[in-house]
């Protein structure tokens, strides 16, 4: 067999393989898990949770869907940015939350409200202090709100006795808990709905288990705030807020190889 023919055949097969690899890579989703968040209104300054809402209370999602701009200039106003994509995940596996920010109000910051249930009981686990980038497995500043009838919160723990002192921090046997202390059957869910026992006007609604909240009755939550590139890490998985799966740079590189291979193979055919 002619050696030149073998070389040409090998080159052609190589170009086809590169083309296929590039196009296959483009068709595969990015390794990043993109989840959808939604902006929503919670409460006017008069404690009303019914539209129309205060004209100076605003929350708008940014163009890439990975953050928001919020304005709550008056006490009592409250808005949120939530997702149902994390519903069903065990709260004791949550590790951290991160974002980038350009705050325009001194001391203002968003906080977490996470609806949880064991299948029967419900509550909001909240962090009102600045938590970005901290380790939720060791962080011991978690408050509990919006729980149903009764004061027994033992269902939240894997063992021991739960309590909620005037500080509102959830405690286990007298010490503040971390998320690692919570029971395995405590999972995020969409909440019990408006009017449920023990649920106030400041509770997030809309079926979102995970909520970043801005605005409240405390002055350090009022003003304006912007966040972007919001992400949540649960176990070894990181979830990024966004509107679509965006191919990573390596994927674009492989796509380029694929298109180049197709172009060269066509040129060789003539």
From TrEMBL:
<protein>
    <submittedName>
        <fullName>PEP-CTERM protein-sorting domain-containing protein</fullName>
    </submittedName>
</protein>
<dbReference type="InterPro" id="IPR013424">
    <property type="entry name" value="Ice-binding_C"/>
</dbReference>
<dbReference type="Pfam" id="PF07589">
    <property type="entry name" value="PEP-CTERM"/>
</dbReference>
<feature type="domain" description="Ice-binding protein C-terminal">
    <location>
        <begin position="246"/>
        <end position="267"/>
    </location>
</feature>
<keyword id="KW-0732">Signal</keyword>
<feature type="signal peptide">
    <location>
        <begin position="1"/>
        <end position="32"/>
    </location>
</feature>
